[in-house]
């Protein structure tokens, strides 16, 4: 479509309106994610701008919107605390380059093969840590370092907040923000034209200013001052094993979240489907630029993407324009950020954290696929108890072990007619996982009778099973009986 025809068509009006809706949804989330990650608020806006204007122009998915995501907040905060803010740019840059390589190698489609239980468990674990951490921000207190300490320290936090007027006001403001977000969907449609996160933060600002509440507010540095490209010295940290594992965690989580979001967005509209490899490269370009600018990592964000589709967006122009609105706001009205109460942003992220926990899906999964539900829960708890990267690895290992166990279906049928040789028919996939059961059955056969072992229906026989069966046949043949007769698959 020619540009002039686009502006004359109804497509422009639909995309223009959708871009404003997405901008209003993205603004408080960009700021909130940045503050929760322990970085200046403007850095979150920079990532949102790059996600809109740069990634929004690239091929891959037409309607999903990228920017800083609540799902990476915990990991970013830990990285900033451990390595420092300047090194964050190196991590994000390396993440983007890895995504570009994976997209070029056409690995994007393989992310769809990752167990859904692991991904949902990962998001649930992130949600739990995010909720616990932001409850401390709501009370104006410093959160403990580990996920377990964050959760176990909540009763003490509540007790301390009740006895402090400042903490009590801060906690109530955050709780009120959550209440607005929860109740917003029940209000009349005319009211819900304003996005819930924006309305909740705006009301919190009005209450804070109107009652002069003693609560912390966002610190403003200015957009240009917040751009801090990593220096050459920071790249020397790439020799650290801890930093490399953090980069792998960023890459895995950002890529998986983006591509799973793309699959979800595709179900919301009838337009062009996502090209997963191109989308992965688009995310890689965006993260590479964010790394050069020293900004937060980006992913495709389902909240903004769904808002984009529901607002009637038809082309990628809506997400590009939303990035333009973010740029204009950050450039022309940066002081407006300074009146936003931090407890309100914490309340927005607590609400976002709850949405990351698939409570309804977990109940269904428990009824229909109990082992998948166990993987989900174990992954989430491992992230809370240990850390993000190792928790995801534990979940992936469990998913692989479950698949291997289910794939190793084997059946051993014993036919004993009372006279003549005992016939043993093995069928299916014989792997080391089922070896103890196979050997128990074979070793229980009479030692004084010849045995015929039929392996002709075995589809796969791994080395461990083959060796163990050969050793069993040799032992059985040493008991003054006829040697075990083995019929192998042709």
TrEMBL record:
What is the membrane topology noted in the UniProt record heading this document?
Multi-pass membrane protein
Q: Does the keyword Membrane apply?
A: yes
Keywords assigned: Membrane, Transmembrane, Transmembrane helix
Where does the UniProt annotation locate this protein?
Membrane
Ranges of residues in domain SLC26A/SulP transporter: 12-379
Q: Does the keyword Protein biosynthesis apply?
A: no
Q: Which organism is it from?
A: Streptomyces physcomitrii
Name of the protein in question = SulP family inorganic anion transporter
